[in-house]
Every structure is written in structure tokens, then in C-alpha cells.
Amino acid sequence: MAGVSAVYDRDGEHIGWKVSVRKKGFPPQFKTFRTKAEALAWASVVESEMVRGVWRDRAASESTTLKECLDRYAADVLPTRKDGGWREASFLRRWQERPIADRYMAGIRGQDVAIAIRDMEAEKKKPNTIRLHLALLSNLFTVARKEWGMEALDNPVESVRKPKLPQGRDRRLVGDEENRLLDACSKINPELAAIVRMAIETGMRQGEIMGMKWSMVNLSARTVTLPDTKNGTRRTVPLSSRAVAVLEALPRNLNGRVWTYTQDRLKAIYRTAVARAGITGLTFHDLRHEATSRLFEKGFNPMEVSAITGHKTLQMLKRYTYLRAEDLAKRMG
After folding, report:
1. Is 288 a catalytic residue?
2. CATH superfamily of 177-332
3. Is 109 marked active-site?
4. Which PANTHER family does the entry link to (predicted)?
């Protein structure tokens, strides 16, 4: 049953209408509106939903701003991330600075998110960066709905058009680039050449290679077991004969790590090696592309390649795999 009463300010001036809905089996609902018609319309909708059994409590989502939820997400969710949530934290701070952060959760619509997307595009953010911002916002709405008592909340991110990702990179080693790169790396530090060779032979990510410890390596079985990968799963990577030879030639560090380089140091010195080799446009991640493509060229099927590289789907493999047409032609006979 709904009840409507006038609302007055301290000076006795009428400023709106407060409506209450009370129905057995449901918590009382209260809301204030500018006009009596709006109050009665809201009450009618709430009562109808209660009768039909589709009512969801909107009190929390109608009284909590996005900024407040972002603060809670930072406190409750980010610390549970494998990396401590440091990357998501930067996206979270950007959302807190946008006008949408002052909106109540229940009032955020797809058009509000679309405006934020246009703002990010105007700021020259790359499509993938924008998509990562949207992924955080989408997950926040999911958590709010499932864990924070905002069951009636719709996810506005699901209704907007996401920026289209550019076509995946197709950079592979060409001509004598491999020899030139390895030669330049060897002249800087033989360990750098060993790291590059491991990337080409295994298809492991840079972070996976740099995080290797001798306890993960089984030279007799020719494997490296990665206990915690980017995808959050354990993966055992088979080693080629060349990869085994690289590891066998390395000295053993007292700290148990395979490499003396840190990841940050590697990034800087790799760019130096590429420049000294006279090579342009070759990132370290391109070596993963190269390795993945070579696995296909050796005849491995997609399931086998996925097991080696850790790609989760065939679509992901397509983005990272570029087979040389001339090599495919040879196999066609």
C-alpha cells in the first residue's frame, strides 16, 4: 500500500512529495519526488513489481555514487588481484576523475558510458586502453549487483559500442634479422642473447621468462613449469633442443633465479640491442608472435600450440599468429 505526503523545508516552503510503499513480505520503500504525479507513478511501478515477484531493492544503488563504489572496489577487490591490482588502480583513478563518478549507480545509463568513451577518444587514448577502462567499470557493476546488494542494477557497459581494436601486429623476423639481433645481444651481454633465444624457441611471455627459477626447470624432461601465468593458470612449457642448450650453458645463481637481468632492465637493453642490429619495429612481444607462428609451421595443431603458448582461444591465436604464405604453399605440394 502506498502513501504520499508533502515535504517542506525549514522555512515551511513546499519542496516535494515523499512516497512510501509497504507490502507484506517486502521491506518498506521510501523515495522523494518533485511532483506528486512522479511519486505516485514510482509507487505504482514498485507495487506492480512486488505483485509480479520481479521487484528488486534499488535503495542501495539509488543512494550510492559511482565514486563511492570505486572506493569500495579499490579496498575490497583490487587487493585480491594477483598483481595487487596496480594496473587496474590507474584505470580506477581515471574513472574517479570523470563527471560520471558523481552519478548514482542506478542512474548510470549506456549513454553516460558512451560520453566517457568519447571523452577518452578525444584524449587520444588507444582503443585497447579504453577497453581496459570499460572492463574495470563493467566488473565493478557485476560485483555491485552480485555482492553489494544492488540486485536491480543493470550493467551500462554491456549496452555500449566498444572501440574497435586495430588489426593485430604481423611483425615477424625477416631475412637475417634473427642472426643480427642475436649477434647484437651477444655483444652487449651473452645472457641477453640467451633470453631472446628462449623467447623465440618457447613463445613464453616476457614476464614468464624473466620470472623463471631453476626450481621450475626440468632439463631431463625438457620442460619449464610456470606455476602462475598471466591467465591465472599453471602451464608446463616444452623445451626445444636449442632452448635446453641455452639453459644448460647458463651459470646457476645463488638466489635461484635463472637470469640476473630484471624485467625493467631487460626492456631498456633490448631496445638498445634492436637499434644496434639496425632493426626497426621489432618489439620483444613480436618474438612471441614469431615463436607461435613457427609452431604452426612445424605442423602443430591449434590445441597443441595453445598448450605450449598459453593462448586461451583460437581467436587469440589468430591475433598472434602470422604464417608465411610461401611456407604454406610448400606444404600444399
Report:
1. yes
2. Intergrase catalytic core (1.10.443.10)
3. no
4. INTEGRASE_RECOMBINASE HI_1414-RELATED (PTHR30349:SF94), PHAGE INTEGRASE-RELATED (PTHR30349)
